[in-house]
Amino acid sequence: MKLRYLAVGLVTAGSVSATALALSGTWTRDPVPPGLAEAALWTPEAMPMPASTEAPVLAPTLARSDVAPMVSPPALPSAVVVAPSLPRVEPSLRTWAREIAAGETLDAVLAEAGLDAPVRAEVALALAAEFDLRRLRPGHALSVITTPEGSPRRVVLEVDDGVRIEAVFGAQVATRVVTPDPETVHFAGEARIESSVFAALDAGGIPARFAVDLAQMLGGAVDFRRDLTGGETLRLMWREERVSDDIVGQPDLTFAALDLGDTLFEIVCPEDGSGRATIYRDGIVMRVFAQPVEGARLSSVFGRRTHPVYGDVRMHTGVDFAAARGTPVYATAPGRVSFVGSRGGYGRVVEIAHGSETTTLYAHLSAVPDGLSQGDRVAAGDLIGRVGATGTATGPNLHYEVRVNGRPTDPLSDDRLSEGADHAADDAAALDRLSDARARLEERLARALTPDSTERL
């Protein structure tokens, strides 16, 4: 730009000088030397425009314009002002929790948690909406979350099998039952019998309650007092329902093999929940057995005992299986219902006739299926009732009897029911099930011996 102004200035100066000389010549009338006259007529050549990196690039028509282009500065983004928000501060909550001990009531435990009487009543009503508080027993756990003012926010009652009863208190009270989704885990184990089946299972880390199942299913075929002399091998498979590391319910036996040396007894239990088990002797179907109660504990055996209610010594004419109220009860063999109703100290009873000589009796029931009546035919494994405590009973249990010609006999040793039990309808399919169970047992036992295996003996 400075060069341009300089060039224009020189041209202007030259013109002025020429004009002045011309006027001077006119005024003075003196002759002008030729060299000076030529100098007066000289004009500088136009200088080229210098390139400038700072000048904007314009179209050719604009480059010849006398008006300088207007260059607008780039628009700056507008700043968004966000008002700072402070986090909401929740009041600190207090958590109180412990297990319920024997003889305690819910009200007493809630009082220990610091709740007032009206609040305790409200909590009890909320929990009772989803759980029968009469079923509260030792081992259940209660947790109470309260505000600093002592108002309950959340109360959780943990009952059996990982089930939780949750009550949330706010503008309204909401109660729900949370049932865990258990994982099925399979196990395999082997034990050597020295003194008893129970001791062998316990020493081998196998659920000892399977001794009761084996005694029921092999009763009449194996005398566990006489035939087991020591050195016998017992191999089993079972499954457990687990939530994390906690077992939900009772383990279920799926296969068992008892090797007596000269005879091999094997049991294949179905996984359909029917309770029917196929029993094999030396690889041949011997009979089909249905347990009266799955997952129960044998609480009293056949024979003389001190009566738990009256305190005197008298004959116990059956066996008792302790189980939770409402646990299904199944017929152990096919037959025809000969009695349904109440019978003295037995409470609610279902009686089934198996032929002309043998009957089974199921007592202390809390309920029977709708429509079950005298004369109905049932198969082994059919549902005939639910565990209860009706009649003379100290708690929920099934009293199970086997009578032959009206005389009670030991249900765990009598073999007469096997004569009326269903045999496998398809022997080929039964043998296939046995072959498959044997293969799975061998595979799991081999896996259990691998150091990095998750299976255990």
TrEMBL record:
Signal peptide bounds: 1-22
Cofactor: Zn(2+)
Gene3D superfamilies xrefs: 3.10.450.350, Glucose Permease (Domain IIA) (2.70.70.10)
Hydrolase recorded as keyword: yes
Domain of life: Bacteria
Domain M23ase beta-sheet core: 314-411
GO MF annotation terms: metal ion binding; metalloendopeptidase activity
GO BP: any one term: proteolysis
Compositional bias per record (Basic and acidic residues), positions renumbered to this chain: 413-424
Record region (Disordered): 403-424
UniProt keywords, alphabetically: Hydrolase, Metal-binding, Metalloprotease, Protease, Signal, Zinc
InterPro entries with a match to the protein in the record: Cell_wall_metabolism_enzyme (IPR050570), Dup_hybrid_motif (IPR011055), M23ase_b-sheet_dom (IPR016047)
Entries under PANTHER family matching the protein: CELL DIVISION PROTEIN YTFB, PEPTIDASE-RELATED
Official protein name in the record: Peptidase M23
Top-level taxonomy: Bacteria, Pseudomonadati, Pseudomonadota, Alphaproteobacteria, Rhodobacterales
